[in-house]
Input
Amino acid sequence: MKLNEVPEQYKIYTVIMTSKSEYEINGIQKQNIIEATTAWVDLPNGTSINKVYAVEIKLNKERTRENVMNHAEEIKNALTITG
Output
């Protein structure tokens, strides 16, 4: 499976803040941060961040590959149902 074929919920991104703090999120959480109408966003790990200070959100290819391998059967079933 090519990276662009991976459903967003299985892609892993790293949010890098101006303070150099890094947070790991999935693609759905990334979209929620981008679309949030407030500056403060709650992450799944319980941390709240001010998205104004996010300087980069980048795809973590290695963690995405691991996540796809860990959820291969689930992804296959999801693609079979939708495809």
